[in-house]
Amino acid sequence: MKPLIILKPFLHRSGEQIGIYFQNSLPLNIVIKSKAGGKWSQTGKCWYVPMNRESFEKIKAALPVDVNLDANELKKHLENKNQLSKKASALVSTNQDLKYPVRQANTNQVKIRTAISPVNKHVLPAMQQMLKLKAFSPSTIRTYLNEMAQLLIIIKDIPANELKPEHLKRYLVYCYEKLGLKENTLHSRINAMKFYYEKVLGREKFFWEIPRPKKQQLLPRFFNQNDLVAIIKAIGNIKHKVMLMLCYSAGLRVSEVVSMKTRNIDESRMSILIEQAKGKKDRMVALSPVLLVMLRKYISEYNPDPKGYLFAGQWKEEPYSSRSLQLVLAAAKKKAGVLKPGSVHALRHSFATHLLDKGTDVTIIMKLLGHNDIKTTLRYLHVTNRDILQIVSPLDDLNLE
Fold first, then answer.
1. Could you confirm whether 253 is annotated as catalytic?
2. Active-site option among 58, 77, 253, 333
3. Is 354 a catalytic residue?
4. Mean pLDDT in each 10-residue stretch from start to end of the chain (401 residues)?
5. Which domain covers residue 164, as residue numbers?
6. 99 in the same domain as 177
7. Do both 23 and 139 map to the same domain?
8. Is 348 a catalytic site residue?
9. What is the 3-state secondary structure (H, E, C) of the chain?
10. Residues 234 and 336 both lie in one domain
11. Does the active-site annotation cover 187?
12. Residue 138 falls within a domain, yes or no?
């Protein structure tokens, strides 16, 4: 498996830099320092170079050919920054009063402050306060604030507190027709607006008049057992192999795998504790005997912190990157010749589907997956072949000889 180097935006001493992240390697350390001009940040625990094209080209030229370079996050940041600069220039040209300097428009906070009218500057702080008081997860808070901010940017100087349901209906039609948003994104946007108007402003049943778009009924993507054997065998790194085997063996989300603590593996009871997963719920899942053998081998080789993360990232106090694990699976699929689409989450779908194929009760699977609603688990009934294999096609009854 080729070493993976990830480039990300890195703020150092109030200036933007290109952060260079990889698992500790003396040869790579020497290359980054001597050939790419990298400097080490003890605070950020990464190498860094100035945020410019010349530095990026130096990094590419310095790296050996047997290294995988992931610059997607850096590219996305630069594209967003370019869009913000254009929006900021447009605001300046219309003589709008910008309270915060345009040159700082490289963070979400500054973007919101510069693009949202002063008339509505109170909306997001009030919404954020209520979200925190209700103990919403950090990811949900970010999503809600971002979705609400899109509305505030569009309405400009119109007070958000004075909007009526008919205004929001027109806005949602605009999002669907002009912006081309998908159903899931529209649902997130509606949820954010609903939270603000009903929970923050206290408007009772404000969204009864606003219909929700019908979601697409998509079947879960999963791998068959031959695919899984090929994928696992294609992985040479024991750490990567164990992480993907853990995901499949217990039906875990990628976030649950990378945040797994060493202490959560209970060999005596052959169980694994999943702490504070989606919905802030703990749950117990079974520890596979096959996985236990691989875990022992991994632990003897990597010696993870008994009180820390089972799969640490570049530094022991940090979890392994979810994005990196997705890249590991993509590389393994390519090497194994598996063309079927599917991310790490498809391993969770495979776990549920294969249990159903073997006749496991759907309520047990619901408990193992940590679902709140049985309807979510029942989706797997549409992909299992347990009943399909018993059906004889009418074509087979025709005498075609």
1. yes
2. 253
3. no
4. 85 76 87 89 84 87 86 83 54 37 44 78 92 88 92 91 89 88 88 92 75 70 92 94 95 93 94 86 92 95 91 87 92 93 92 89 90 83 69 74 69
5. 76-200
6. yes
7. no
8. yes
9. CCCEEEEEEEEECCEEEEEEECCCCHHHHHHHHHCCCCEEECCCCEEEEECCHHHHHHHHHHCCCCCEEECHHHHHHHHHHHHHHHHHHHHHHCCCCCCCCHHHCCCHHHHHHHHCCHHHCCHHHHHHHHHHHCCCCHHHHHHHHHHHHHHHHHHCCCCHHHCCHHHHHHHHHHHHHCCCCCHHHHHHHHHHHHHHHHHHCCCCCCCCCCCCCCCCCCCCCCCCHHHHHHHHHCCCCHHHHHHHHHHHHHCCCHHHHHCCEHHHEECCCCEEEEEEECCCEEEEEECCHHHHHHHHHHHHHHCCCCCCECCECCCCCCECCHHHHHHHHHHHHHHHCCCCCCCCHHHHHHHHHHHHHCCCCHHHHHHHHCCCCHHHHHHHHHCCCCCHHHCCCHHHHCCCC
10. yes
11. no
12. yes
